[in-house]
Amino acid sequence: MSTGLPQREPDPQLPARVTIYEVGPRDGLQNEKTVVPTAVKAEFIRRLAAAGLETIETTSFVPPSWVPQLADASELLAELREVGRGPQRPVLVPNERGLDSALAAGVGAVAIFGSATETFARKNLNRTVAESIDMFAPVVHRAKTAGLWVRAYVSMCFGDPWEGPVPVEQVVDVAVRLMDLGADQLSLGDTIGVGTTGHVSRLLEALDARGVGVERIGVHFHDTYGQALANTMTALRHGVRVVDASTGGLGGCPYAKSATGNLATEDLVWALDGAGVHTGVDLAALVETSVWMAGQLGRPSPSRVVRALAGSAG
Length: 314
Ligand code: HMG
Ligand code: MG
Hints:
With 314 residues, the chain is an alpha/beta fold. The chain has a single domain, classed as TIM Barrel (Alpha-Beta Barrel), CATH 3.20.20. It is built from twelve helices and nine strands. Strand 6, helix 7 and strand 7 (185-190) form a beta-alpha-beta unit. Helix 2 crosses helix 3 (73-80) and helix 7 packs across helix 8. It is globular and about 55 Å long.
């Protein structure tokens, strides 16, 4: 009989606590075919916070023509009030126009999002890699001056659907340039979920050799090939303490069709609970939230843990 929790057997190779950086409301909902009503997004975020998720990326300030699903960013933050603000509620901003809107909405944290490859920079940002870094520079400068926390994503760290393999040195080069702008944290995006464990180790070691240590790194694995949890565990064994995940396994990127959902937050919490790693998240409340959200979206969650626990509860 399932108790709804794994048997706890501490894993001494893992850290005592991990910060889950929840991306469901942003990475998940940016990719839905239907536009989720603002009130439902707000309820989703409130439920995630109530389930114990401290860091929640809420939305993106990008042109509605690029991501219509998140066109209600200002309205959403107004509806969320304090639940949507502060240094643990980042929003994506690509440029100064996005930053202006984010500041007007009262955010306390922003994320810029660069690409390790030229093709994806062009498709996702309508810029070369160099031009996109030029676009981000004033965003980071102004955000830091305003006292905001800043994250820098790098996409296509482990492979690119148009260019194929991406050399580790190329990823490190872009990552270092983004961190040199003054970002507080780097998130390594496996946008299309093709990474494997040795590759994760190699990239983390190469970043460390260039001065970007694990204490400034988060990992962001999409689960297209079922590797996200294994890759995450590898990163944790290297000392990474921040893991991106999406409740229910929602997610993808509208500008990379081969991207599917992120590592499901429930799958991560199950693994970490079992290994005795503190996350602060109530797994049962999270599963309940996923089941509710699946009802809103009209399709079941791809998360194994959600399916197992929702099934065992019924
Ligand atoms: P562009 O078309 O080159 O922009 O797009 P532009 O500067 O030429 O402006 C065009 C129009 O948009 C202008 O309006 C601007 O004012 C307006 P017009 O004069 O024509 O009326 N505009 C804006 N409006 C609202 N908010 C703004 C804004 N900026 C300009 N911020 C741009 C360039 C960077 C804006 C565009 O390419 C863009 O927004 N791209 C973002 C696409 C996106 O959101 N992708 C998904 C997120 S990334 C991701 O999912 C990966 C990640 O999860 C990590 C991983 O998995 O690897 C993070
Ligand atoms: Mg992503």
